[in-house]
């Protein structure tokens, strides 16, 4: 299962980078259970060097509990370390567009004013992304479940053009 996930995550990383969304950090948090720890090297080998795999220690507090999430969630932070999106199943499946779109929104929207962490060409990159989205015919888009409830939610009213 994690081989499919890691391939799709790498494909998403490359796609976003090719669209000009650079300096995004990707971190996979491995579950702290014994079974997951034994498979850590397989997970680490299944992702590129551009994706960090964090191994939890069995003795530490569980990262997912600390973050009020579950092991299959996507937490998307802005460049200032603020949580912008917390996507849970089924909205965290990489076969749907929710993760990609959430990253693009967090990267491109600038609600807080000027920021020293903004990439120089971000306006051009984000304009191109917006134009591509506007040109998509609605009938071609795959049918996906609509995010509702606590599994896909926006934690902060501010969204930012950020790299995390």
Question: What is the gist of this entry?
Answer:
The chain is of the alpha+beta class and 164 residues long. The protein has six helices and five strands; from the N terminus they run αβααβαββααβ.
Termini separation (Å)?
Answer: 25 Å
Could you report the average pLDDT, rounded to the nearest whole number? 78
Main β sheet profile? 3 strands, antiparallel
Please state the CA-atom Rg, rounded to the nearest Å.
Answer: 16 Å
Strand content: 5-15%
Based on Cα principal axes, name the global outline.
Answer: globular
Stretches where pLDDT falls below 50 for ≥5 residues?
A: 137-143, 146-164
Q: Which strands sit side by side, in order, in the main sheet?
A: 3-4-5
H/E element order:
HEHHEHEEHHE
Q: Tell me how many strands there are.
A: 5
Helix-residue proportion: 25-40%
**Count of DSSP-assigned helices:** 6
| Domain unit count | 1
Tell me the structural class: alpha+beta
Protein described:
This protein is 35% helix and 13% strand. It has helices at residues 2-18, 34-38, 40-46, 63-66, 98-108, 122-135, and strands at residues 26-30, 51-55, 74-77, 83-87, 152-154. It has a three-stranded antiparallel sheet with strand order 3-4-5, with helices on one face. It has a two-stranded parallel sheet with strand order 1-2. Strand 3 and strand 4 (83-87) form a beta hairpin. It is globular, with a radius of gyration of 16 Å.
Architecture blueprint of SSEs:
Blueprint: H1 2-18, E1 26-30, H2 34-38, H3 40-46, E2 51-55, H4 63-66, E3 74-77, E4 83-87, H5 98-108, H6 122-135, E5 152-154
Parallel strand pairs: 1-2
Antiparallel strand pairs: 3-4, 4-5
């Amino acid at each position: 299962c994690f081989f499919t996930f890691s391939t799709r995550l790498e494909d998403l990383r490359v796609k976003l980078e090719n669209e000009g969304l650079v300096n995004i950090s990707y971190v996979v948090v491995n579950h702290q259970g014994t079974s997951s720890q034994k498979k850590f090297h397989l997970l680490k080998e299944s992702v590129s060097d551009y994706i960090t795999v964090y191994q939890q220690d069995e003795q530490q507090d569980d990262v997912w509990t600390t973050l009020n999430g579950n092991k299959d969630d996507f937490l998307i932070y802005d460049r200032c370390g603020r949580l912008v999106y917390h996507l849970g199943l089924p909205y965290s499946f990489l076969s749907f567009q929710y993760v990609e779109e959430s990253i693009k929104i967090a990267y491109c929207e600038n609600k807080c004013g000027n920021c020293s962490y903004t990439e120089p060409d971000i306006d051009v990159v984000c304009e191109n992304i917006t134009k591509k989205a506007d040109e998509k015919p609605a009938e071609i888009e795959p049918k996906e479940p609509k995010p509702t409830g606590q599994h896909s939610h926006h934690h902060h009213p501010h969204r930012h053009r950020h790299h995390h």
